[in-house]
UniProtKB/TrEMBL annotation:
The lineage of its organism: Bacteria, Bacillati, Bacillota, Bacilli, Bacillales. The chain crosses the membrane at residues 5-26, 32-52, 73-98, 110-127, 134-154, 182-199, 211-233, 263-281, 302-322, 334-353. It comes from Paenibacillus silvestris. Belongs to the amino acid-polyamine-organocation (APC) superfamily. Spore germination protein (SGP) (TC 2.A.3.9) family. GO terms for cellular component: membrane. InterPro entries: Spore_GerAB (IPR004761). This is GerAB/ArcD/ProY family transporter. It is found in: Membrane. Keywords: Germination, Membrane, Transmembrane, Transmembrane helix, Transport. It comes from the Bacteria.
Length: 358
């Protein structure tokens, strides 16, 4: 089951490319985005490393079980409700954002509300499954999509339209002071590890997670690619005019002898799968947290359906009130709060691990 830890981290790294992280970094490209990338890798990996080492002290247990053994009931309820909101919002934002992308770039004639409803049904159906089944679904999507994504990234960096002088121009601003927005966006690529709050239940006791040192290397490559490739294609000034920079970047690429010439369609298909996978992982964690609030009902199928229906219903209703700008602002606010919440989660796990050892 160790491979699923790396799948969770990789999934989050890939999912960040198409949504808000590149746009936030590009918005601050002259105001410290390069320095934020430099800082994000050690900050994100430190949080990951400390969390993994601490939660390994509780083999076979999720965060709710750990919390119940070491904290009063009212504290557990407060913390669980707070993190339910965090994981629910992560899935909700992804679904709403990708419904807008689907409407704009695939079929503008379809109502965005209908697209949201379709995505909510798919994600909800998977999120309600057992944790093992959810991980199997994620594995299938990653194994079938990641090789093609890697090929698209390779085509991007080797394309003649990629102007590296624009990337070097951005790199000259590396000494500029970073903003909190850019650091929050940069550290988001490592956040996949936090899903161990539930999936740690499936890890075998006394089983160490090897090769953690590869994560900051891969994370650095993903961050640089998601930030600099759009700059190389669109230039240092025009790149900030796009709502979804990577969609426009993929539409700038062609596969001359491919079955589908425009890379946009391939890219959209791949990231539909990746985005849905990220959403059902987030919602599954939220559902499992919610079950712990009412332990007497958590084994009942109708209760799981009710929780998923509530999450889907709220997402469907709120999608009506978002447009591109308000969704981006909300996503930026979420990422800022997410970093604080992530640090708090790591601190809680560290404290509980030390208390157990003592």
């Amino acid at each position: 089951m160790i491979r699923y830890f790396y799948y969770l981290v990789l999934l989050n790294m890939l999912a960040n490319i198409i949504l808000f992280v590149p746009r936030i970094l590009l918005a601050h490209r002259f105001e410290g985005s390069m320095m934020s990338l430099v800082l994000s890798v050690p900050i994100g990996f430190t949080l990951l490393y400390v969390f993994v080492k601490s939660i390994s002290k509780f083999p076979g247990q999720g965060f709710p079980e750990i919390l119940k053994k070491h904290a009063p009931r009212w504290v557990c309820i407060f913390i669980l409700i707070y993190f339910i909101a965090n994981w629910f919002l992560a899935g909700m934002i992804t679904l709403i954002a990708f419904s807008e992308i689907t409407k704009k770039y695939i079929n503008p004639d379809i109502s965005s509300m209908l697209i949201v409803l379709a995505f909510v049904i798919v994600v909800g159906m998977i999120a309600r499954l057992k944790s093992e089944s959810v991980l199997f679904c994620m594995e299938i999507l990653l194994v079938t999509n990641v090789p093609i994504i890697a090929w698209v990234l390779y085509k991007a960096v080797t394309n003649e339209a990629m102007h590296y002088d624009a990337c070097f121009e951005i790199a000259t601003h590396i000494l500029n002071r970073p903003t909190w927005d850019s650091i929050s966006a940069g550290t988001y690529i490592f956040t996949g590890y936090t899903n161990l709050v539930i999936f740690n239940r499936l890890l075998k006791p006394n089983k160490k997670i090897p090769l953690l040192w590869t994560i900051p290397i891969v994370g650095t490559c993903v961050l640089l690619a998601s930030f600099l490739i759009p700059v190389g294609y669109h230039g240092t000034m025009a790149v900030n005019t796009y709502i979804y920079p990577w969609i426009s970047t993929s539409d700038s690429m062609r596969v001359e002898f491919g079955l589908v010439e425009r890379v946009l369609f391939i890219f959209m298909l791949l990231y539909t799968n990746i985005s849905l996978a990220g959403s059902f992982i987030h919602w599954h964690v939220g559902v499992e947290f919610f079950k712990e609030l009412i332990p007497s009902q958590k084994e009942k199928t109708y209760f799981t359906w009710a929780v998923v229906a509530a999450m889907g219903g709220i997402t469907f209703l709120l999608s009506y009130f978002f447009n591109d700008n308000s969704l981006f602002n909300f996503g930026t606010l979420y990422l800022n709060i997410r970093l604080v919440s992530e640090i708090a989660l790591v601190i809680i796990i560290v404290i509980l691990a030390r208390r157990k050892i003592a």
